Amino acid sequence: MPPPAQCHVIRVTPRGRGAVATLFLVGRDASAILQACLAGTQDSFESNAPVFAYFQLTDAREEVVLDLRRRDLIALHCHGGDAVVNAIEAALVECGAVAQTWQDWLLETQEPGIFPYHKPIDMIQREALQLLPYAETELTAKLLLAQYHGALSRSIRQVVSLLENASNGTPSDSAVQEARDNLDFLLQSYNTGKHLTTPFRVGLIGPVNVGKSSLMNALLGFNRSITSQIAGTTRDAVSAKTVIWGWPIMLIDTAGVRETSNPIEQEGISRMQTVMADSDLLLLVTDATTQQINPLPEILGFPRNGTMIPVLNKIDLVDQQTLSRFRHQSDCVPVSAMTGSGLDQLNDEMIRQLHKTGNFIQDAANPSQRVLVFTERQYSLLSSFRQKLEQGDIVAIIALKAALLE
To answer: For residue 227, what pLDDT band results from cuts at 50, 70 and 90?
Structure first.
């Protein structure tokens, strides 16, 4: 029995309708498998120029453009409709190729021509490149590019270097402490890094009729939630994305909390509790006209260990003396969803709480200098090595470089 074919077919353009789509055929048998799918004989398979050919489908021929400069890495360009691309991919698989996602291929390939600026690149750089298409804002894309260009990799190598020096002679307390501090910094950065491709979730909770829906609409800049003077208008969790300081944020409006026998409202409150459990940050919205700032007992099932910002809405409806008193209280952010007053301060406080830092403006201005742990694999390995360092196992820590980078 002949050995199995060594060829992967990889779709490298996004799925969906487009003018042109590109497939890679990678492997020892790429040329043979491709020729088996083409209509007629091909006399120009050694060409260094693009080659036009016809790909034989079940009941039609599809014109394709081939890059044949290498037999083991062939680029096939075709019409960009999903139906055409799916048919070509299926035909290649039927002839012996194995379908592979571009993400898996990027993590596995040692092909230097794919990465002309970094030869070779390490596993962390591959992970950054793999996630880059999923960045939703310019800032998060720049931060992923910083990791692709080696920001995190260099930081890890610095930790390894400190520990190597400590293990080669008399362990230096200062070197070990510096390595420990660096590891702690990297672990803390994961709270931010894991949101490079996944929006932060911010839930708006509070009693009925305090203006949660109006506040959400004001933060979004358009009317996503229905607003009304009638208490209990919001019955379900309503979500929408926005961007604050370059970070994607999913805002979630929830039903107001009050004693009710209405089963629909009760279900809305139950869903609000689910939002509370799943959110990275909660905005506890209250009404300035009631003079009540922080009614935690009224919020059923409030996660007391969660991150929360008390927000005092409707400050446009109170007198100047009351407003002055609210603005001098550090435990709440006074805002008006109607006039927009205080929204900039609320945005700033949201980003501070989400990132656990007050340097978010500086970070946004210098994304190429920011070091972030951004995958669960990285965080898990770093946590394990941090524990070993605490146990004094310096030699085991040095394996960090191979485990994370190679």
So the answer is: very low
